[in-house]
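Continuing the series of single-chain predictions for the mutant panel. This is the parent chain; the variants come on the following pages.
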Amino acid sequence: MLGYIAAGRLVNTDPEQIDLGKFVFTIPEPQLINHLVVFLTGEVAIEEGFGASIFLAWPSPDGGEAGWQYLGYITNDKPSAIFRISGTKPQELVHNPFGGMGMMGDNMANLAICVEPLEEMAHAMAESQAAAPTASDFMQFASVTVENLFNFVTSFAAPREQALRDADNDWFPLGALQRWQEIFLSKLQRDPTFWKR
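Parent structure:
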């Protein structure tokens, strides 16, 4: 009924059934996978009015409970979906779809598929889409962006004599960029929404 494909690996159509409508695939070395394709095999259709919510549980780096992440869904009308999983390790954690059950092994992830009514799936989809970035997320993004710009520009730094000989390029004092970085980050710290005005 269900299967998944990860590039460079064999197709897996043999999930373990944990409970009624709850299936899990164990995925070795998940850090080597960029995308997963989850699909209905076509052998058996999902019951009318139902769909399959798809979750991924990443192993915890400190050996604690796995971080479950909602990826999306498939239905009879949408029998397959591609999910990018590289770089998404549990930022958007959700409840464990299997209750308190921990199913993780060393260097393993779990792909959990829950067959449930479409109304329940709609709630989970709305929750995942409603997770808007916070001020803290924006501050972190802005700080990293400013630091990246500073590092990039300073990689072109040259002694004054060389800069004067190179008439083909425009030059500016590196100290000006450093002052701008300090002022920008200071404003961001005081008021993360200053840029909206």
